[in-house]
Amino acid sequence: MAQGHPQAYFDSDQVLASSEALDPSRLLAAVPAREGLLVREVEGVGLVAARRIDDFTHAVADLAGVHAIDVVWRENPGELEPLETRAPDFGFLADAPPGVATRLLDAALAGPVVFTGPDPEAWIAWITHALPGGERITFSTAGDEDVRIRVAEGGIDTTEPCELPPSFYARVALELARRGVLLDAVARLEDADGLALAVHGGATDLIAPHQLPLALQLITELAAAGHVHEAARAAAALPLHTALPGTALVLREEPPLPEVIAPEPEEILEAEVVEEADEAPDATEPEPEVEEAEPVDDEFVIRDDEIISVPFEPAVDEEPIAPGQPIPDDVVIEVPFDVEPAEEAAEEPLPDVDAWSNLLSELKTESVTPDESLPELAEPEPEEEVIEEVELGISLAELEESLKQEGRE
């Protein structure tokens, strides 16, 4: 039984009863348009749920932590009583058409969803309990708009099977609902994470092989937080030993490495073997003395201390050549002479300015006499004036008479 929630009873729009701390007039905005259940946000109040049967409406405000779909609603007016709730029953899912439950849940994950069919409150209970924070989801079974889940014609038909493949989250949630552990697992979630839902609900047998590393990480964090029993249950359900359809864990075997074959050494033909000295010479030992070679008595060998004498004869002065005698070819005659330096040409002075002026004036005044040898040019003959004659077509007398008449006029 839930207590402490403000309530009100209405007959149409008339207030029959109300909690002391509640302004019932504000709850009229949450009254459904016709019979059914409506949950919506009311300004100044918060989340309000109202159930209408005929003209009677039972409204509840401040539904913190309570699913409106679980409330036991009053059907007749009377005194205000503490609010009661009941646990949801998901047994109907076993008889539901295949794919309908996961289809509705995936549609609600994506956004607003509209559906139609019998027992709509059971389907709303499934959707709101399968989603984290489902108690805050707005819905209407009376066809009211501006809600997340609405029951109306033209939506998903809950009586027809659905062949759309479900999401991993919807598949895990449906399995946990069948096992009876859905509510506890969803209560531990902050977001709609399918893998986290499987770990918290112990349904790790549904995970795929590629999800195993992350699942192990979540199990470790769960155990470190003190939930050892829950972590052990999730670890025991991991598909390590049992192979379920589509969930078998495939272990990849490392292929054997090929044997390393060492290459055979190449045979070197005609190799010269050099023997190394056993020990290096000691640097401290004195160098052996080099014996000097004895001098060899040989007339063709010149020693360093031998003095060589070169015989030569002094040059003989030649006698001067007497005048009149021929001069031999090998005699060089020297003739002394003095070279006079070349005289530099003296620069001629520029002509006087006055001389240039006189010369120009003479050229201007000088007359040129004609050359009498040149032939005389003939003078051009004058052109004769050509008088054009125009024939007027009248005689002179007639012309004279016409001129006189013009003069009189």
UniProtKB/TrEMBL annotation:
Region annotated Disordered, chain positions: 276-297, 364-385
**UniProt protein name:** Uncharacterized protein
> Which source organism?
Solirubrobacter deserti
